[in-house]
Amino acid sequence: MNLKELTEEVPGLKEYLRNMPEELNHRHTIRVYPPGTIIHQKDFKLDYFGIIAKGEHRVINEFQNGNVYMIEKNEPIDFVGEVTILAGMEKTSVTIETLTETTVIYFRRKDFEDWIEKDIHFLRLVAGKVAFKLYRSSYNRGARLFYPPQFILLDYILKYAAAEGIDSRSQITVKRTRQQLYEECGVTVKTLNRTIKRLEEDGLVTMCRGKMTMTQEQYHLARKQVHHYVNYDRNPKE
How far apart are the first and last CA of the chain? Predict the structure, then answer.
């Protein structure tokens, strides 16, 4: 697949590439990755910039003790290495792992730096994407410290159920391992097990072959429970 074919397949790319320097038509690489591939490793020297044209991925932070913390999930169109480059840093700060088959257009770091210096339109698109993710992170920051594990997990399940189309299905199954839930919710596996048991006792989820399931009735009941948590925190004396 070449850049022209990819742009035809992903029309949204045209807005990003409309002022791309002509010479970059011959100085880029397109790579397709299967799910579960690390395409960007924390603490590595960054020599490239990438545009994620297709596929979902997650941004994670890995620590020396082996723990993994998921910062966010993203969909295309997105970028690889933009934060490191815009910050003027040499090494990457996060790891990116593909969740679905992912197509990335790569450019040399120097080519990207020259491009954004000349193309204010492209720079605004990149900066806008960075700002949006920062806004989203700032808006939700503190929830994992402030709210109890039951709220955090329930809120996660509700978002998962909504994404799976619970409104048009009789029930959904949360297809996540305990380790994945730990990475995505920031709640330890031990606490997760206790919390899942509590949610089951409260009738908010049902366990089936080790996985949490949620019916439409449980979904609406869980939404009321989350709403109660939020309202209580806003009006604790009521």
Answer: 61
